[in-house]
Amino acid sequence: MSRFKYFKVIALVTFFAFMFPLLMFSKNVDANLPVKVFVDGVELETDVPPTIINDRTMVPLRAISEGLGMKVDWLEEDRYVIIETKKEETPKEILTSEEIFEQTIFGESFATSKQITKVALKEGVVRIYPNISDNELDYYVTRAQINVTADKNELTTEEVKLLNKIITKNSSEFKNLTSAKKDEYLSSIATTYYKLAQLYLDVGEDYGIRGDIAFFQAAHETGWWRFGGDAIVDQNNYCGLGTTGSVKTEEDIDIRGADPNRVWYKPDTKHGAFFDKPVTGVEAQMQHLFAYASTKSLPSDKELVSPRFRLVNRGSAPNWIDLGGKWAFPGYSRTSYSSLEEAMSANDTYGHTILKHYMKIPDLTKAVKELTLEQRIEQLEKENQELKLENERLRGLLYK
Fold first, then answer.
1. Which of 39, 251, 318, 369 could anchor a disulfide with 67, C-beta 3.0 to 4.6 Å?
2. What percentage of the chain carries pLDDT values higher than 70?
3. Where is the Copper amine oxidase-like N-terminal domain positioned along the sequence (predicted)?
């Protein structure tokens, strides 16, 4: 279920040329004659002239690609050429903070894996490499995209444990590493965050849930996967399921119908549920969000893996800001506010915090749905009726 917005062409190259077999040329063609390149009937001028070598035509890759309207990037260290063919853009509009605070748990994700990873990488390395530049962030996120595109393997617990191990180092320890080791670590961090982001988008799509925002809920719960609270990285529990209260005892390890091969408790040892692998932990989070946002049954092709799904007051939190006092209790800072209502008025609850992390993505946009003429007329008629009602209300106030 790839969610890439662009078609990616990744080539390992040793020089600047792109090769076309000479299937259309005669062997008797004079190799000394100049080779001309035409794009849509217009001759393309290139910095490096095309040439024929061993019956193959060699043309500059960047010139040809850009002539076809593509974007070309060159990663020198990895010797990768990345070509992106942009699809026709759907009209977009920037989301305001008020609109973000109104986001529902159900819906289509707006953010991409690259956008999510860039924020996560910056936050994740803040203790070990606080001065990472924007160019470095872009570079490592692009490398991560390449790595994930090439590696079709599922995210493993060991990869997340390595992420946790690296980002919990102290800054002096990281500073003393060689440049090559720093590069290796930063690439590894970015790649794991990218896999996590893609996993959240994919599983979220399966349940109709905003996987992009759910990622930032997990980031908030785990401290960007540093952990340090009641749960540990080995649990694959990224949203704190079952971590509140006391450690589970033998008498209190009921997983309430969830698949025992995929989820379990370890009595008298650790808080919270254990999941067999990262994707199960993410799916359990989505199921728990599903329970809060809806009264419907889970999709028929899904097995229950959330051990607390049946404890939720179903449909009580359709929006992210509704999770305060429900998913997390009390859901606000008692040192700053006297009640949940006061914190809600200040946009400072558990749900607001998740959305504020999400807002670290710059210029969040949503697609503007193209309306037919009939839909536009209907919309204008509705707006006109609303204006008439507002006019009557104001006139009533004026002549009271």
1. 39
2. 81
3. 39-89
